[in-house]
Amino acid sequence: MKLGERNIGTVDRGARVLVGAALLASVVTNTVAGAIGYVAVFLGAILVATGLLGSCALYSLMGMNTCGFKKKK
Length: 73
Known about the structure:
Shape: elongated
Oligomer: single chain
Mean pLDDT: 90
Low-confidence stretches: none
Structural class: mainly alpha
Number of domains: 1
Order of helices and strands: HHH
Radius of gyration: 14 Å
């Protein structure tokens, strides 16, 4: 599996975008602040980005793939 190759399935992508958006929203609404707020922004941005792109570098390094079975050519 190459780095940058799509390796995140639909359900995983949706969950990442929802959780990431919730983390970012919690900082924007001042529900979370300080050092925890910075961590929430960092994690939220990563989750949203990987969810939208459909590729996770950590999954690639670990050989994981939640896209399901791929047809062999």
